[in-house]
Write a structure and sequence with these properties.
- The chain is of the alpha/beta class and 375 residues long.
- The chain has two domains: 11-152, Four Helix Bundle (Hemerythrin (Met), subunit A) (Up-down Bundle), CATH 1.20.120.420; 174-373, Rossmann fold.
- The chain has twelve helices and 14 strands.
- The chain has helices spanning 43-51, 58-74, 78-86, 90-105, 112-127, 134-169, 197-206, 223-235, 247-254, 278-288, 318-323, 366-373; strands at 11-15, 21-26, 37-40, 178-182, 210-216, 239-242, 258-261, 265-267, 272-275, 291-295, 301-302, 338-341, 348-351, 354-357.
- A seven-stranded mixed β-sheet has the order 6-5-4-7-10-13-14. A four-stranded mixed β-sheet has the order 11-8-9-12, with helices on both faces. Strands 1-2-3 form a three-stranded antiparallel β-sheet.
- β5 (210-216), α8 (223-235) and β6 form a beta-alpha-beta unit.
- The chain binds 5-S-methyl-1-O-phosphono-5-thio-D-ribulose (MRU).
- 5-S-methyl-1-O-phosphono-5-thio-D-ribulose is lined by residues 56-59, 111, 184, 186, 190-191, 196, 223, 262-264, 274-275, 337.
Length: 375
Amino acid sequence: MAAKGNNLRSLIFEVDDDGKASLSVLDQLLLPHETKFVPIENVEGAWDAIRSMRIRGAPLIAIVAVLGLAVDLTSNGTTIRDLAGLANSFSATREYIYDKMAYLTTSRPTAVNLSNAMVELRDIVEKMSPEAPVTREIVGAIVDHGRHMLARDVSDNVAIGRHGADDLLSRHDRPDGVRLVTICNTGSLATAGWGTALGVARELHRRGRLESIACLETRPYNQGSRLTAYEIREEGMNGTLICDSMAAFYMRRRGADACVVGADRVCANGDTANKVGTYALAIIAREMGVEFFVASPFTTLDVDLSCGDDIEIEERPPGEMLESACAPKDMPCWNPGFDVTPAEYITGIITERGVLKKSSDGTFDVIGFVREHSS
Ligand SMILES: CSC[C@@H](O)[C@@H](O)C(=O)COP(=O)(O)O
């Protein structure tokens, strides 16, 4: 089946001739039944869209935070007046923006892309010279960086797809192509476009080398059934939806060559936080002798964290579990949004700069890989 192309958009960002930015995001809570873009007017709106999971996915969270800040700072509302009051003070303007950035970082804790983006943005602002016109320069730099993030994310994802497809095809070039299993949603809806793990599937499909892809439903939030299944259908891939509990039997009966999953944070030793259920899938893959790949742009690497034990795992409200389950309304629940897959279960980490494999001692050297591949 020929690829239809990647037409899904997770957001629309525009800047008018006066430099005023506008942002609308596709409300993913309504998918797959309704396609509706909702405007983000300010930082609070961006925080709420991230927290409520109207938008989600590690790269998209970071992008919407920065674009939301750009919209907020270029709006005609109270913010610009507040900024004008600060315009003669470089440090006051900077601190004002840093407060907003700190607030955005509190929206969701596990995906490192958000805090990495804020560090990157802070570096840009810190390097600016404290000359007039302060406000316009700083705000302009933030808008420009938002645009840069959008373009970079798409090109990183396309490169991840290419490296992942090359690597998989070097070992699994069966007559009908490669058989994949994935969890959660890592596609165009989780990114600025194309996707990470789903980008690998997309690239195989584009080459006519994707035999099949199974997507796990991904309880309790069902990103697999609501979003990945939707993307698979849009793209015309040969996909099958399975419940999370069916992964082992699916691999046994139908066969799989590799699991490819996304990441919310990859530590220096390769331990990887991703959607809850990923760890179980990795254990099953090992038992079945199926390769297990993490697709992660550099923006999802956390070289400052040595291993996964210290990753803050977001706990979501019990209601999210109870609403999508048939359970007594007052049943106590534990609802971690993510889990951590130890590096020992991971075959390789597919990045935009190549596939990181384990060293001869069976460990990943993420820091060395970043050093080697950073320009
Ligand atoms: C390219 S998206 C990578 C990860 O963010 C994805 O696998 C995931 O876990 C998303 O979780 P979510 O809670 O939907 O934001």
